[in-house]
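Q: A reviewer asked whether we had any structural model of the full assembly, not just the individual parts. We don't, so I'm hoping you can provide one. Inputs are below.
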Amino acid sequence: MTEEKKEPKKSSSKPAGKTLDRRDFLQGLATAPVLGLFGYALKKEIDYQKAQKAAALGTPAVVPEQAELNVALLGAGAQGEVLLNAMLKIPNIRFRAVCDIWTEYNLKKAVNLLKKYKFEVNGYQDYQEMLAKEQGLDAVIIATPDFWHARHTIDCLKAGVNVYCEKEMSNTLEGARSMVLAARETGKLLQIGHQRRSHPRYKHAYEKIIKEAKMMGRMVTVNGQWNRSAAPDLGYPARYAIPADILKKYGFKSMEQFRNWRWYKGLGGGPIVDLGSHQIDIYNWFLDARPKTVMASGGTDYYDKATHEWYDTVMAIYEYETPDGIARAYYKTQTTNGSQGYFENFMGDQGTMVISESEALYSGLMYHETSAPPWDEWVRLGYVSAPKVIMPGEKPEVVLDVRETVSPDEHKIPVVLNDPYHKPHLENFFNAIRGTEKLNCPPEIGYETAVTVLKVNDAIEARRTLNFDPREFEI
Ligand SMILES: NC(=O)c1ccc[n+]([C@@H]2O[C@H](COP(=O)([O-])OP(=O)(O)OC[C@H]3O[C@@H](n4cnc5c(N)ncnc54)[C@H](O)[C@@H]3O)[C@@H](O)[C@H]2O)c1
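A: Here is a predicted structure for the entire assembly that you could use as a starting point for your response.
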């Protein structure tokens, strides 16, 4: 990367926890469109009064509950678009800017989409120019390739802006560590995009089924997977190719590499990081532990090694020391067969939980061990559905090996998300800026997950079991 580093201008945003004054609320009026100016000013004034009321009650109002937040998107590719569409369903968000180096394609697409929704947004190629010109931003949503996350996040935080940064937090632990430190130093909020942390089904599973009801008893093993069908590399319309000097400036050797960055060492982490980090994050969360060891096997077995430096097939086994004892956790990602998609399967001595972010596949199922105390109370409380009776000869809904060896007593986890998958996590971030919620995935959690996941690639290279020192997870 040869991009020059300029010191971004300081934004006028206040540090978290500081009560805002009237001028703070009225800032941004200068950038309000002429039409609707009165309504905007009135709303800001009402917001201000609410904040004053909250302050009088001793509530540390950062930004009042329903205050409109000024937001920019940095990285408008596939995931940037997903996040944008989720945010468009969240009230009180005012989009101000989009930044993307693919100006003729992704940048234009995102700006045009926002203009369709009547937002007056500016488009930028360079994020430092955006930070310098867009004063009064409350948040930047970062969805650039992993190797850019640390620089983008740190510079935004230092410019006084709260950040939602996509996973993987960084492709290096040094990068991830510096992001945690920058969040602490600046006092700004940093949410890492492990969106299952805000998913109502996962929260219900952890808070009600695991912690409160302890329905699975002692969790002993875990397995999970993300399988994808074989697919060609990502292409691009030739007429929209980015000039070589611009690509080079932003760290890419070619358009082919720019489009398929996740397969390259130094840019991404391959499928185990791209896909696995979502689910291995859940292993740590639900087991209430960090792993002690990891062993792994993997390789580029199917695709061209020259363009797929990271492994297309990975199998990893972790050993955890949980508060209840040892648990072993297996994870597989395969990019040559999409069978059974993605899910996580937690097995305890009293029950089994199969859970997925996907509403289409397994979503959430529980299996009761015949020897375990009955779950009637949890059914009565609505934590799980009544058991589904499977008649002889009837096909179960989901065919898993587990069904052969345990009771066929199947319950559903009755929580469905009808919104886009990322919306609850973005809402949690915006509400944390407003001071009404705590972040569900602060940088310390993102860091723990990065430590857990990045070591799989090390273990494959080392061809042996690697230990985790508990201090590795601390900053
Ligand atoms: N949470 C999830 O479920 C999920 C899903 C997919 C991707 N992601 C994450 O989102 C991020 C983006 O992934 P993607 O699939 O959208 O990739 P992508 O290649 O489709 O998009 C990346 C975008 O960033 C732009 N970009 C690259 N370098 C830039 C720079 N220096 N400044 C400004 N713009 C730059 C590119 O032009 C492109 O538009 C990754 O970190 C990925 O891991 C998360």
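A: Points you may want to mention in the reply: The longest helix spans residues 37-56. DSSP finds 16 helices and 15 strands in the chain.
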